[in-house]
């Protein structure tokens, strides 16, 4: 099996990023206007402590996965927390370590600045992702609420 490569997103990744993020949003039955794609892409390259960041995964020189993450303050710690916001691997590479490698890359990057809490959410019906998450992280038991 070829090695999975994880690296920060580059401006040259725009087409692959858009394809992968669209597939992720489709999985969650979500559509976003082009303006959101545009501002998200811009934010991924805007310097700033709290701006989102991203990694892309490649296998055999093909982009096969992505993640977005961001740091935010916490009242429970001197250091920021890291929220892994989006994680996606192409269906044809699932089970080959792409998701785990992307999670590990975020964990390592956060660790470089002293952040120890990397967390994320998934839908309760996302059994494929939950198998991975149950293997690489602990389930906290918290339930999400929102005011949409």
UniProtKB/TrEMBL annotation:
Keyword Mitochondrion in record: no
Alphabetical UniProt keywords: Acyltransferase, Transferase
One of the Pfam families matching this protein, by short name: Acetyltransf_1
Domain named N-acetyltransferase: residues: 4-148
Keyword Acyltransferase: yes
Designated name of the protein: GNAT family N-acetyltransferase
């Amino acid at each position: 099996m070829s090695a999975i490569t994880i690296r920060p997103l580059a401006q040259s990744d725009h087409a692959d990023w858009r394809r992968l993020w669209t597939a992720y949003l489709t999985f969650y039955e979500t559509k976003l206007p082009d303006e959101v794609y545009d501002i998200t892409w811009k934010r991924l390259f805007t310097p700033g402590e709290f701006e989102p960041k991203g990694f892309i995964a490649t296998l055999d020189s093909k982009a096969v996965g992505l993640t977005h993450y961001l740091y935010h303050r916490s009242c429970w710690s001197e250091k920021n927390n890291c929220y892994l916001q989006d994680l996606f691997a192409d269906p044809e590479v699932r089970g080959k370590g792409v998701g785990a490698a992307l999670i590990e890359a975020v964990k390592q990057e956060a660790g470089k600045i002293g952040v120890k809490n990397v967390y994320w959410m998934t839908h309760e019906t996302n059994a494929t992702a939950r198998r991975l998450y149950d293997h690489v992280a602990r389930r906290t038991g918290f339930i999400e609420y929102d005011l949409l």
